[in-house]
Design goal:
The complex is a heterodimer. Chain A is α+β, with helices and mostly antiparallel strands. Chain A contains two helices and three strands, in the order βββαα. By secondary structure, chain B is mainly beta. In chain B, β9 and β10 form a beta hairpin. The termini of chain B are far apart. Classes of the chains: A alpha+beta, B mainly beta.
Chain lengths: ~80, ~150
């Protein structure tokens, strides 16, 4: 991984259209500003990883279990 | 085309049923071709379907319409992120949530934070993270179903 030291109000540029600026450094927290084209999705890493994990757990579901859940849905009608 | 599936054996799938997810789905970014399979011929609205990978037969996720769980599912998304779907009318979009079904069925959750959006007109799909702060990745569905039953 590339490591760059930056101070508050300094930036890095990624490719030719993404700019990440250190807006504020306060105690153990850094506030980042990100300028990127609208089609680029930007997520906090933990939420992206949570969803990756949720999809993996969904794939691991057993059909048998899902049948019983489906019965619950059907009984609802 | 003949294709292997996780739960339905080998099936003959009409090519028009192939859904392309240009970005894959999260955690399975390399798997771009999927299809939707239904459990029963007598399927009712709101029951569970399977999002089955056509690249890897062992990959299949149970999915359900959010509207079968909550009346008001109103995801907020950045429109730019919907480009992969091609042209669509909002009312045509199919919205589905992945279900995580652990050993104890009562602990089943639906992923409200990252729905699948499918455009039937272009057969393209995406999984997207919505901006709604109060939509959880693990939304417990069992209690909801119980409540619906109790409310009848």
């Amino acid at each position: 991984m590339l490591a760059l030291s930056r101070k508050a109000n300094e930036s890095i540029v990624i490719g030719n259209d993404i700019e990440v600026t250190v807006l504020e450094i306060k105690n153990d927290q850094v506030k980042l500003g990100i300028k990127a084209p609208k089609h680029v999705s930007i997520y906090r890493e933990e939420i992206y990883m949570q969803i990756q994990q949720a999809n993996k757990e969904a794939v691991a579901g057993e059909a048998l279990k899902i049948d019983s859940l489906e019965n619950l849905f059907d009984e609802n009608r | 085309m003949l294709t292997n599936t996780r739960y339905f054996g080998t099936i003959d799938l009409d090519e028009s049923k192939i859904l392309t997810f240009p970005q894959g789905i999260m955690g399975f970014e390399d798997y771009k071709r999927w299809t939707l399979l239904y459990d029963k011929d007598t399927r009712k609205d709101g029951s569970i379907s399977w999002l089955q990978s056509l690249d890897e037969s062992s990959l299949a996720l149970p999915v359900v319409s959010p509207y079968s769980l909550i009346e008001q599912y109103a995801p907020i998304v950045n429109e730019e992120l919907l480009k992969d779907l091609g042209p669509f009318k909002e009312e045509d979009l199919l919205v589905l949530l992945a279900l995580t079904v652990p050993k104890d069925v009562k602990q089943t959750t639906a992923n409200m934070k990252a729905p699948f959006l499918i455009n039937p007109n272009t057969a393209r799909g995406i999984q997207i993270i919505v901006e709604n702060e109060n939509y959880p990745v693990h939304f417990r569905v069992y209690e909801v179903i119980q409540r619906m039953r109790g409310g009848r």
